[in-house]
Write a structure and sequence with these properties.
The structure is a homodimer.
Chain A: E1 2-13, E2 16-28, E3 33-37, H1 44-51, E4 59-64, E5 67-68, H2 74-83, E6 85-88, H3 100-110, H4 115-128, H5 144-156, E7 162-166, H6 174-189, E8 193-197, H7 201-204, E9 209-214, E10 217-223
Helix pairs in contact in A: 3-4, 3-5, 4-5
The complex binds adenosine-5'-triphosphate (2 copies) and magnesium ion (2 copies).
Chain lengths: ~230, ~230
């Protein structure tokens, strides 16, 4: 479902060229659960943004569900992003003036869901991440780990078939992380595809395949043989 | 040096009272290295903000280096914050229009250091956290872990005697985390005081004392007997 061929992403800064990604060839089948690891600055978030159609590569081709993404028009891209993909950002990106509930309900506005149903579904998924008592809070009235869970809830509310999560447990204690990983396992068991960036080996172990980046390239790509 | 007596911090939201901290009595001597742990939402960042004089308690008293903080005027508070304390925020709080170098040099502006020396010292500490090649980048041109390290460098540039770090390795891979913890150990060895919030037991182990919070209270406070 995710088919990257010779993908590169560079930035030009004055005289310098920074190759955030050099050449990435990666194939992820529908229903896989992949952990993406690598040192700070190795290109993980850049790769996630490309997979999530939030950025375009400098070179190479990207086929999502068989369609070449660079050939899609804006409407098609917006549709794919909204329906197929749920994105948990490393920096959360919540809207500061909206409550947790309203933040989580946002993707359903684009999906044309009625207001009553939006708030019901948002409340339901916030409850699943342990935030039933915090729905009215704005982001600055929440702890770091609570904001992270709101970002996760927002990514899940539209029941996407592809979940892209960039460090979803970076601000969570062990017990809360285990709850969240349990939720991810349920989502995966329903046949969905998950790509998860993490720097913790414990968390990566929930996936069945680990792709490691180094300096913008894939250093290793291993399927776990343990069940 | 950090003496909290019956500290409480509540928020009023409509009819509800949220007790982020119920009653915290905690004494940290100069030169200690303390890890602060606890579930998401248990009050760790709230406690760090109070210790760092960035927030005032709803009840209780706080003595910093023997002086009662609530009795200090704004000038005294600003001075303490700038000279004594270095703060690494859970959300980094970098200035988006300034480069990494300028962000790190900021505290030295308040300290009245000359421009040449500011940039030299900022460059030096950025090099120590592995960001020599990223000094000209703005925060949005950096990876998550790079931003985290810029926030750390900024907290250290004024050589504070008290370092308060809220999840300083949350976005870092294992190797980079180990480098950063090595840096913290050096700072501690020079006689400085460190309070470090982390959710990772591996990281907490670098400290010699672990304080655990739960629902706004101290659940346990243990000095490690292993060297
Ligand atoms: N401005 C506010 N208004 C209301 N409640 C707040 C406000 N700020 C924080 N809280 C609540 O206070 C509690 C403690 O928050 P705090 O940020 O200290 O937690 P934490 O231990 O740092 O959590 P985390 O590990 O998730 O970062 C949380 O339950 C949070 O929802
Ligand atoms: N807009 C930009 N301009 C220049 N360089 C950039 C820009 N955005 C990112 N970079 C660089 O690209 C590289 C890859 O960044 P990326 O955010 O993908 O890393 P990462 O693997 O997610 O790191 P982390 O684990 O720290 O989050 C970094 O070295 C970063 O400095
Ligand atoms: Mg990243
Ligand atoms: Mg916190």
């Amino acid at each position: 479902v995710i088919d990257l061929r010779g993908i590169g992403r560079s930035y030009v800064m004055g005289q310098e060229h920074i190759h955030a990604l050099s050449s990435i060839t990666l194939n992820i089948a529908r229903g896989e659960y992949v952990a993406l690891m690598g040192p700070s600055g190795s290109g993980k978030s850049t790769l996630m943004n490309l997979i999530g159609c939030l950025d375009s590569p400098t070179r190479g081709a990207y086929f999502l569900s068989g369609q070449e993404v660079s050939r899609m028009n804006d409407r098609q891209l917006a549709e794919v992003r909204n329906r197929e993909i749920g994105f948990v950002f490393q920096t959360f990106n919540l809207l500061p003036r909206l409550s947790a509930l309203e933040n989580v309900a946002m993707p359903l506005v684009y999906a044309g869901v009625s207001r009553t149903e939006r708030l019901e579904r948002a409340a339901e998924v916030l409850d699943r991440v342990g935030l039933a008592s915090r729905m009215r809070h704005k982001p600055n009235e929440l702890s770091g780990g609570q904001r992270q869970r709101v970002a996760l809830a927002r990514a899940l509310v539209n029941r996407p078939s592809i979940l892209l999560a960039d460090e979803p447990t970076g601000n969570l204690d062990t017990k809360t992380s285990i709850d969240i990983m349990g939720l991810f396992s349920d989502i995966h068991a329903q046949g969905n595809t998950i790509v998860l960036v993490t720097h913790e080996e414990e968390i990566a172990r929930y996936a069945h395949r680990i792709v490691r980046l180094r300096d913008g390239n894939i250093e290793s790509d291993q399927v776990e043989t343990m069940p």
